[in-house]
Design a protein that fits this description.
globular, 69 residues, two-stranded antiparallel sheet, binds zinc ion, 0% helix, mainly beta, 39% strand, Rubrerythrin, domain 2, single chain
Length: 69
């Protein structure tokens, strides 16, 4: 018998895949923005919902951080 574990990562910050992020959650309006072409640290992304622009930053743990610009 195998116990069922919740595999959901409790860290809700997007993680980079191959150095690129493919989505972000807007810190202004909380909307989830898929980013099909991918973005990396220091790229500029814009929320599709509220229009806020961010500079992508990546923490030492590899978590995405967004700096409003
Ligand atoms: Zn937004």
């Amino acid at each position: 018998m195998s116990a069922t574990y919740d595999l959901d990562d409790d860290d809700d910050a997007p993680k980079a895949k191959g150095g690129l992020f493919y989505e972000f959650d807007c810190t202004e309006c909380d909307a989830n923005n898929p980013w099909a072409e991918g973005f990396k640290a220091k790229d500029e992304v814009t929320c599709h919902y509220c229009g806020q622009s961010f500079e992508a930053r990546v923490s030492e743990e590899g978590k995405l951080k967004l700096k409003p610009i």
